[in-house]
Amino acid sequence: MDLELFRTITLAMRSVQGKQDTAPVYYYELCNCHDADWSHPPSGISGHALLAAAEDGCLTCSIVKGALTTALGEPVNEEYNIVYKLKSGYGIKIRYMLKNEWSTQRKFQVFLAEGEPTLPPPLHLDHVKEIHESPLSERSLQRIQELLDDCNLNHSKCSVTELPALPTRVIAVGDVKNPPRLLCTQGERAEYLALSHCWGTEQNFTTTTATLDKWTRGIAWEDLPKTFQDAIILARVLNFSYLWIDSLCILQDDRKDWEREGMKMGVIYENASLTVSASLSSADKDGFLIPRTQYQSHAFTIKHPSVQNGTVVLQVRTPIKKHLRRDIGRIRDTWRANLSMPAAAPEPLDYRAWCYQEKIVSRRLLSFCASEIEWDCQSGTNCECGGRRRLFDIDGPDARNGSPRQVYQTLQHIDSGVPSANMRGGNSRDLSTSLVELLNPSPETKSSATESVTPPEDARETNSWLLWRTRLVPSYSQLHLTREMDRLPALSAVARGLESLAGGQGYLAGMWLSDLANSLSWQAGSFSTNGPRPGRLSCQYRAPSWSWASIEGPVDACFDYEDDYHPICDILSADYSLAGEDPFSNVESASARIRGHLVPATLRTTQAPPRPGRDWEVDYYCEVNGTACKLYMYPDTPIGQTDSSLHRSSLKPGESQGKLDGNVQLLAILMARPRTMTGFKDRTAAPTLDFGADRWITFLVLTPSGTGSNCFCRIGIVPHGSSVRLSGEGDQWHKRWPMEDITLV
To answer: Which InterPro entries does its entry note (predicted)?
Structure first.
């Protein structure tokens, strides 16, 4: 195959995959020492071949030999297999291993040392940023300042027109001579830092009504936990006078103060000039300005007549495993992974639910991770080594799929000047394209939308609701809370930030009232090869049974953004009583009046076949009365039975509960097109809402609440029931069971 044709095909494939950079240049293109290899991936060369080529004076092979010798601390093994390629903005990437023995694999990154002259073509090596051992070294702090200055000067989306008002209380960080103290503000405006941190199990250092006056006079340095000390040190070296820390700036024993300040939390993090995330720390006592040694680079020198001055200094290091946030989207046709963690090993802070909204709503985020410092702002991402650099205006969001932060920030920028983008009818890559289009419409889109630049309100709302229930809620629900009752408060800042985009009918217990018919289709457990895992019953009431917030554990949406579905029930009204002042927090009671098709059925259980990684013992089925139709059900929690009454139980999924046999009602809420493993069979052939065609029906599984006639509680969901099987040979199912009004509590 012609080399130029091969590279053209490679570039086209990378474009389809959403990879914006240039194609890598493999070893056989970098010199004439080795035969071309069109296999994918290339099979590589032997250590013997590399050493021979280096001995013959090849610059490229000499560099690879020098890098391996330096990194390994020993000579290159002639038996080993070596594959290397040149990547733009990265340097040379080397894979070194015994052939077909993956346990021996090691990878290395080679780049020019700072200040070294460029190499002759085709070795266009870059000066990649180094990761210095101390995050407080002059070079590390210079890198942080560069990121902050670049954002301030060049990122219009991240800038503010005026200084923000300081929060009710802030830490005046002081200096070496003046200790930090708690400052009660009076409407002053100034820049400040905010800290996102994991408290840990010992929450000893907080502000209470008893310590408030003491802290305003000064806080002894030795009394501060290490994480707070590190945050103050960083604020000082970055020339910030004020710092906001939730545990010190909110009175922890004053419920009214906590609720009042908690309602402002989204604004506090959004207005902060920079949010510092202590990602690597599992407790305040640990600190986050900790030496990083895993990815230290090592210098080596190559002498060669073709380079300037005859010598060149290069660096080699173990490459950082992953930079970009893990996809939120399908990992294959039937199951989705909704993770907010980095693709590398998650940091301790990545597991904490409270920190989820802090990271999402912050204008700028500086994360101190175990391997390096990461940067996120509304205009892009970056990191200490530079490998995570991405400008959304140019490159688009993470091409493999936007992170929860990118999804939220994109929705924040949907305004009257940006056309709406269609979030449905595609795959993970289509969502990324839609995110780009929402932020930066192409000239073609702009010209075609000139007659109606303002996106239709219903389209804007639909996109917001869709991403809320299929992206933000599922990723949030997998995270950990110390207090169960914080499940809704810890997401309130995100909900409040999307309020203007989500219609005017309000928000109730984690769900938008304008989208309630669709939002009812949540199911307990994140997707996996074993199907969703039942959740756990909450110890205290905080949300109605039809809200995902009524249970503990992960939840997910039955349908994704690429699915075609339509509500087939009507939400008549919703009544609720708040548990406090915050409309985005817990409720004391709530009910919804719904008109829909109610199908009587019998819930039964069968012994589940053993499956690896599965810890629950039964499968749940709903047998529709008067038919041979058996529908698989996903329970919200393990189901209990008292006499003939079924209910959610506090049993753990793995605990034995015996066989169940009780009456339930199935409320039809959604209709969707049936699809194969590779897609919908009739996506464009007929409308989704067609009662005469074969369609999937989604049912809520209900049991009487005992609080009135036609009043029910939700105990589970049937995500996909065939309308043809449900109808059998008699009347169509929707005619056999006409619509009626019920109340859900």
So the answer is: HET (IPR010730)
